[in-house]
Design goal:
The chain has 242 residues and is α/β, with parallel strands linked by helices. It has 10 helices and 6 strands, in the order βαααααβαβααβαββα. Helices cover 47% and strands 10% of the residues. A 6-stranded parallel beta sheet has the order 3-2-1-4-5-6, sandwiched between helices.
């Protein structure tokens, strides 16, 4: 029986920072050696990913620290004289006031099941974003709390322990196959992949294109699950009015 939902946040409930990244890579290209923006973005992501995968326990660094470090390295790599703090501030502003996906906002407004946010982000930034959109999760669990980033187990383990739920009683919903789906599944947690770009779905992965389709998955089709079916009807009504 499903008793609660875990949600990733950025890329799942709210938009990722792609627009900001495009703006920053353009600035780096124009102020540096003129490298292609895609090459700058790839290098920046590679460095950031390497840093956060090695950030846990006593070696843990916040997302803000990793952001500044990875951007400093990227500026140096591409010969840019842009100000790292000014560029990073663009990212931080997005993290605190990200645009929300309409389907997610509708779903969470009507959700009558306890739900929790489980996110690779700094605590203050996600609290600001949740307040900005007026969301009411039962609790928020962050990488900063766990001193670890998904897909490592520590963040999921913290959330399970503090909610006093076992993996079979949870569905974790996220947009990243590696961080969310694989990370949660490694602990036996049920998962749903938010596949907004309609990419090929790997074998064994439950995927939906939008929040509107979450209740149509096998996790909620059985009568013993506690979702009031009016949420599905109301979401369809909202969808029809858009």
């Amino acid at each position: 029986m499903i008793k609660a939902l875990f949600f990733d946040f950025y890329g799942t409930i709210v938009h990722e920072d792609g627009v900001v990244i495009n703006e920053i890579t353009t600035i780096i290209s124009n102020s540096g050696d003129g490298a292609d923006k895609s090459a700058i973005g790839s290098y920046w992501w590679h460095i950031f990913q390497k840093l956060y995968m090695n950030s846990f326990g006593n070696s843990f660094k916040t997302q803000r620290e990793l952001e500044i470090k990875s951007l400093e390295m990227t500026l140096k790599k591409f010969g840019s004289n842009a100000n790292v703090n000014e560029l990073s501030q663009k990212m931080f502003e997005h993290w605190r006031k990200p645009p929300i996906f309409e389907d997610a906002a509708n779903f969470l407004e009507l959700c009558d099941m306890p739900y929790y946010i489980v996110s690779n982000i700094d605590t203050d930034d996600i609290i600001a974003a949740i307040h900005y959109h007026g969301l009411t999760p039962n609790k928020i669990f962050t990488s900063e709390d766990a001193k670890s980033y998904k897909p490592r187990a520590e963040l999921f383990e913290m959330a399970l322990k503090e909610t006093n739920l076992n993996p079979q009683e949870i569905v974790h919903i996220g947009d990243s196959l590696s961080s969310d789906i694989k990370g949660a599944a490694n602990l036996g947690i049920n998962t749903i992949w938010i596949n907004r770009n309609n990419k090929k779905v790997p074998d064994g992965v439950v995927a939906v294109v939008s929040f509107t389709d979450i209740l149509s998955t096998s996790f909620f089709s059985a009568g013993e699950n506690r979702f009031d079916l009016k949420i599905g009807k109301e979401m369809n009504n909202k969808k029809g009015r858009v």
